[in-house]
Specification:
Length: about 230
């Protein structure tokens, strides 16, 4: 059983949702600016839920040979940890801008908390998510396809600057899974990817958002809805 260090839950966190597709560079610019403002005490912490148009992102450990279709979708250098991943419609992206030192004390506890938040969210839809040593993200066993077969349903990749986190996680609700074929997702060739839809669980993004909010509040304390944080951009 995974042990998660209890977070500091004293201060409510902003909970923002963008209902339109958000360009990756717009999101990255906003996250970077918001993290700096949080570090300077000029802005509140924020959890931001959104979707991107189809694109690939390259983390700090990305290998060029893992980009199998470089001309298929735009490729963005993310600056987060990890390798290549895909983002697109039907995937819930959650960018998490928190004071990790105050809330958790160390990065490992923060990552474990994000993993548990994903696992709790999946459990609300009767999906059993699990973590694996040496494989970042959350995985689902696929015994119907053979012994030991597992697919990735959620990716986690973070960056810290002055102890403020940005980037975060993504959960495959109903994306076009074939779009993952343009990369070696997270550098792992032995396993595939799956989604709520692929597993036969038909859920809307608002339904998943409700489960995510409950899981975040269990881990971090209350959140405060703020609407679309980039509504004016």
């Amino acid at each position: 059983m995974m042990t998660v260090t209890k977070a500091d839950t004293r201060t409510p966190i902003g909970w923002g949702i963008s209902d339109r597709l958000v360009d990756y560079e717009t999101a990255l610019t906003f996250m970077t600016s918001r993290a700096e403002a949080i570090a300077n005490g000029a802005a509140d912490e924020l959890i931001w839920l959104l979707e991107h148009p189809p694109l690939y992102t390259a983390g700090t450990s990305a290998k060029r040979e893992d980009l199998l279709a470089p001309d298929r979708f735009p490729v963005h250098v993310a600056g987060r940890g990890g390798q290549y991943t895909y983002h697109g419609p039907g995937q819930r992206v959650v960018y998490v801008m928190l004071d990790v030192r105050r809330r958790f004390g160390d990065v490992r506890a923060f990552v474990h908390a994000l993993e548990q938040i994903v696992i709790d969210t999946l459990a609300a839809f009767n999906i059993r998510g699990e973590v694996r040593e040496g494989r970042v993200g959350v995985w689902v066993r696929r015994p119907e396809r053979g012994e030991g077969v597992e697919d990735k349903i959620a990716a986690i990749g973070i960056r810290l600057r002055r102890w403020i986190s940005f980037h975060g996680l993504s959960i495959n609700v109903a994306p076009e899974l074939e779009h993952f074929s343009g990369i070696v997702a997270c550098g792992i060739v032995e396993h595939g990817v799956t989604s709520f839809e692929d597993l036969g669980q038909l859920a809307s993004l608002p339904e998943v958002d409700m489960a995510l909010r409950a899981a975040f509040e269990r881990a971090l304390g209350p959140v405060v809805p703020i609407g679309d944080p980039i509504a004016d951009l």
